[in-house]
Structures are given as structure tokens and as C-alpha cells.
Amino acid sequence: MATQCVTKVELSISCKNLLDKDVGSKSDPLCVLLQSGGDDKWVEVDRTERIKNCQDPEFSKKLSIDYYFEKVQKLQLCIYDIDNKSVDLKDDDYLGGFECTLGQIVSSKKVTNPLQLKKGKPAGKGTITVVAEEVKDNRGIVLEVEARNLDKKDLFGKSDPFLEFFKQDDDGKWLLVHRTEVIKNNLNPSWKKFTVSLQSFCNGDLNKPVKVACYDKDEDTSSDLIGEFTCPTGKLLEAKDQGVEFECIHPEKQKKKKSYKNSGVVRIKYCKIEAQYTFLDYVMGGCQINFTVGIDFTGSNGDPRSTESLHYLSPNGVNQYLTALWSVGQVIQDYDTDKLFPAFGFGAQVPPDFKVSHEFPLNFNPTSPYCQGIDGIVQAYRMVLPQVRLYGPTNFSPIINHVARIAATAAQQPNASQYFVLLIITDGEITDLDQTKQSIVNCSKLPISIIIVGVGEADFKAMEVLDGDNGVLKSPTGEAAARDIVQFVPFKDYVNAPRETLAQTVLAEVPNQLVSYFKMRNLGPVNPPAPMK
User: Fold this and answer.
1) 73, 108, 323, 324 - which has most CB atoms within 10 Å?
2) Which residues of 60-74 are buried (b: 16+ CB within 10 A; e: fewer)?
């Protein structure tokens, strides 16, 4: 029997007195949560946001992890100074870490430890504090906030305001639960709508006080307080559709000036409690995940008869293409009941007339390009390999557009019943990069995730541009993607790793991408879980 997750736990992370690795400014820290996968291998579970120029960060993003009572779950919390946009932490300074088990954190609720550079070797500076909370509630609080007439804090411009929301813990201290984006040079800002789990926001207790503080962001020094207010969480909910206003008070100014009224007004435009559905809620509620595969048959792969070719089948019938396909397919096929998967090739000259095609079915049947299970795709691949001529160029957009057309039809359904995952396995640079960017931006409004696995030793910089982890992808016309839907993984990083490690990395973002799409469409599961009592 598979082990059942007992509950979900959220970890709040803060640090004090971090090492300063940057010349001329402070470090830009970020915290990564790793879990032991055995055999001295560690898998990333979650990471916080990066905070610029800060030696005492309090991260607003909670790290979420499944808690299993019967498992020893070894964790590492690692603090890095992030100096560039790359998600690869090898390029960044390690400021120290802390290793323990989830059980230790859960049983203590709050743990403070000195940071270590290696096991048993102190970092010399810095502590990390971890606060654990069980997520008992699937509800979230949705807020949209604006302000007007804020105090001007900058000498040569207006303020750059942002908000921080705090709840009070059992010993009376204020714990950060959310930080908004900064709005530059504006005394009448309107922030983006955001959602925080009700458990994180107020422990599910609407009588619990919340403190809202408005700051002026300063890149070089610590941010300046504009003003703040405190009220019960339930008071925010009075906003409903007509809004509710609070005076933004600066305590020091209030003490000094008798004529002082406020430093501006904060208006809660919208506040509502909504069910926050998970990936499992959608899948268990009847959502089908439709899996499609695209395989690169361009000439740069080398002649399949040569042992140097990426398409060469070793004596035991394997190559990097098939290993990537098996790794991802074995996991994802469990979420598709009929196990019929469309599979295509691109970049080859195809019989009988040997015209170049960028979306030919591996089974050579255009009216029914489906293969039965992952084994069916493998068989079709082995059959087609000696029959096609590897050619070029490397065009991704035709196969992406093919899946997009099917997904667009499914998207017209008024329910969360269909989602699509396209796996593209390729050996090199994209030729139609602009068209591919446009296709991905179009797909970001559809129920699609795209996984790209790069095989071989090529330079895959263009692929990393498509992966939205480093910022929002834009089309050549400047249109921004509605959400991040691409995950790129270089196969060479996993050649010696267990097959399940590649699958975990490749599929890591799909659950959140699926949830983000249906949330964007305001669609709950077809059969939602029973509401909490």
C-alpha cells in the first residue's frame, strides 16, 4: 500500500545577521528547501522569494511540504546570495544552511539554529528560524488593496509603496504572512489581487488581529514605514464589493504632531474567502491529463546507425530519447484513463515522398496518431527510426500549435475536465524561436504545460529563455505569457541519476501549472471535495 501523506505543513523562514558577500551592497538572500532522496541525493521541494539587500530577511513565501508521520524526512534549508537571474544555484554564493528532520521541526513548532557552511562547520555568522504550521484548511483569503494620498518619502520623487501583512503568534509577536509587489513613484497605488491560505493568514480564526504596514521601498537602505493599522481579520471581509477603508498611521508622527491625521488611507477593494483547490482535488475530481510526445529527428542528432548518434539504439535497445520518454511517461500515464497518447516526430524527411515534416505521427497514421501506453510510443519510435531521413530545421511551433488546437477545443468546456502535457525531446537549438515564443504565449491561456528535455551536449540557452522561471516570457510583439507553462531540463545533468529523479524534476511544476490555469479560469474540480465543516 502507498504511504499516505498525513498532512501538509507550511514552514515560515527568517534569518538574522547573514554573511555579506556583495561588494558595495548587502546580500540578496533566498532560501531553498531540499529533502533527502536517499543515497546522499537531495531533491528541491520548494524555495522562497529573493529579498534584495538584506542581512535579516523575513521571507513572505511559505515553504510547503507533505508530512508523513511514519517516515524520517531529512531536510536541508539552504540560504543563497542570488546575484543573477539563473535558477541554477551553482552560480551563487552559499551563505549557510541547516539540516534536520521535518519531525524535529513539527514537534518543536519553532526552531532557531546557527547556519553551517558544511556539516559541523559553522558559517561564522547568521541564524535561521523555522516556524511550522499544519495546513488544516483548504480555504484562502483573496484580497485586492489600494491606497491614496500616501506620504511622500523620497527627496526627488514620490514614494515606492508596498504592503506587508502580519498575524500575531501565540507569544504576541507579529509574523509576516504576505508582502505585495512594489509600485514605483506613486502615492495612490493599486496592488495586484493576491491569495493567501486562511491558515497562513490568521490560523483560520477571523477574530485574530492582522497588522497591515505600508512601506516606501529603498534599494540602498532599509525601507521606510509610511504607516500601519491593526484590525481583526473579519473586519477586512466587510469590504465585500463596496470596499472598506483604514487610516494609515505612523506612530512616531502621531506622537509628535497634534495636528497629525494620517499618512494616507488604505482601502480594501475586495476581500473574500474562497476554496483553494489542490492538484489532487482536480485529479481526484475527474480531470484527465492528456499526454503528447514530440521527438526531434533533425540531422544534428547524427546517423542513427552510428554509435555516435543520439538516436543510436544500444544493444539493450536504449538511448537518451527513450530513457527520457520512459522516465516522464511512466509517471504521467497514471493520470490518463485510456492510455492512448498521440506521438509525433519533427525535422525529418518522411516516406513515401520524403518531404520535410514538423508534425508527422510516429505510427504514420495522421487520422489516428495514438499509441497504446508508453510501450506503444517506444515501439512506434523504433519502427519509424530506420524509415525516415534525419533532416531539419528544428521547428517547435508546429507541434505546439497542434496540441494547442486540441486544448483550445477542450478549454471551451465550462469545467476542469481536461489538461494537456506536451513532452518535447530535442538535441539542439530552436530554429523558429520567435514563432515558438508566440506559440507558448498563446498556450499560456490554454490548459497546457510544455516540458522540454534537452539530450546530448548542445548549448541550450534558448530553451532556458522559454522556461518562465527567470521572469515572464514575452512574444516578439511584446505580449506577456499569462502564466509560466514551460519546464526545461538538460538530460546530461541526470545521466547517472536514478530514473525517478529526472521524472521528479521534469514534472515538478506541472501540478502548480494545472492549478494556476483552472484558478485563472475560476474553475473548481468537476467533483469538488466535500466542504470543510
Assistant:
1) 324
2) bbbbebbbeeeeebb
